[in-house]
Amino acid sequence: MGSGAERGPPVKVLTCLESPHAFWRLSAEHERALSGAFPGVEFRTATEADVPRHLVDTHVYFGWRFAPSWLPAAPHLRWIASPAAGTDHLPVTEAHAAGVAVTRSYGFHGRPIAEHAMGLVLGFSRGLFTSQRVQRNRVWWKDELAEEFFDLAGATMTIVGCGSVGGHVARAARAFGMRVIGVRRTPPTSAEPWVTTAAYPAVAAADVVVDLLPATVATHRYFDRRLFAAFKPGALFLNLGRASTVDQLALLDALDTGHLRGAALDVTDPRPLPAHHPLRLHPRVVLTPKSSVLSRTYMNEAVAFFAANLHRHLAGRPLEGLAEVPAALPLRTGG
């Protein structure tokens, strides 16, 4: 993390990283590591209930959540740092208006999400989910699997919202011999011939489509009836991004008509789905409880990212992962 010999009045950092799971919780070891790396910084830890009363002299906040109502109680706050990959749960607009920077974290969510994505793809491609579903009441189902399985080698995966996490998913897919197309709003560089801004041709060519879009005004129900209709018949759909990016009624129609082979959803609206929701009961839908980012090393890497950014903050350098105020910029092209 570095030596951190900063001078002047101490910068005060407040942390609130509570979780029932150790890998999402700031440990005493993490606290000692930060204090040792930044001897000129005063670190304090608070429960969420106690955060408001500690904000009066706080300069930097590092936590999972920050309520908009907390901002007036934080006159000296300059930076809200989140260990999460997204910032749609944070008051980005309000913080910006108050002159407070908001940052997300990145660079370490990709590995577990890539593992999760390929696990789901393999579950469908090798008939694992079907086998688990029918083993209690069927003696033998080999012929059924012979009809529904598909080879990953030579198949095409399209990743919509292809940034840092998408790069990890792409590398994992290529390890199975898949061809990968990445779709994103910004034009590709010369080193990214596999990336495009044209979503419609990209999903039309795909055997597997992975949604990694963030939640913005521009991506709200991005996957709608028109886009699902453009999918290759028999394609598999994975949503590991945000629930708001999918029109779930349109997804159900695409599944019920047989246009889609199946869907794997790590995010849904609402969350969790009601017991009798058609997506929960659908035979070709697999749900996971927003578990794609589970990793035993999560907080270790989040703290390392925060420490590197804190060095930048103390040195007056630009922060990494700055969140932009939401804007309605179109992403979809090519259809």
What can be said about this structure in brief?
With 335 residues, this protein is an alpha/beta fold.
Features:
Rossmann fold, 2 domains, seven-stranded parallel β-sheet, 15% strand, disordered N terminus
Under the CATH scheme, which class of the largest domain?
Alpha Beta
Helix content: 25-40%
Radius of gyration: 22 Å
Tally of structural domains: 2
Number of beta-strand segments: 12
Which fold name fills CATH's third level, the topology of the largest domain? Rossmann fold
CATH architecture label of the largest domain: 3-Layer(aba) Sandwich
Order of the strands making up the biggest sheet: 8-7-6-9-10-11-12
The secondary-structure element order is EHEHEEHEHHHEHEEHEHEHEHEH
Give the biggest sheet: 7 strands, parallel
Average pLDDT rating: 94
Q: How many helices in DSSP terms?
A: 12
Topology readout:
Blueprint (H helix, E strand, L loop, with lengths): L10 E6 L11 H10 L3 E5 L5 H4 L5 E4 L15 E3 L10 H6 L3 E3 L6 H16 L2 H7 L7 H7 L7 E5 L3 H12 L3 E5 L11 E2 L2 H6 L3 E4 L13 H6 L4 E5 L8 H9 L3 E6 L12 H4 L3 E3 L10 H18 L20
Helix pairs in contact: 4-7
Question: What do these coordinates show?
Answer:
- The strands form two sheets. Strands 8-7-6-9-10-11-12 form a seven-stranded parallel sheet, with helices on both faces. Strands 2-1-3-4-5 form a five-stranded parallel sheet.
- It is elongated.
- β9 (208-211), α9 and β10 form a beta-alpha-beta unit.
- It has 335 residues and is α/β, with parallel strands linked by helices.
- Mean pLDDT is 94; it is low at 2-6 and 328-335.
- The chain has helices at 28-37, 51-54, 92-97, 110-125, 128-134, 142-148, 164-175, 199-204, 225-230, 248-256, 278-281, 298-315; strands at 11-16, 41-45, 60-63, 79-81, 101-103, 156-160, 179-183, 195-196, 208-211, 235-239, 260-265, 285-287.
- 31% of the residues lie in helices and 15% in strands.
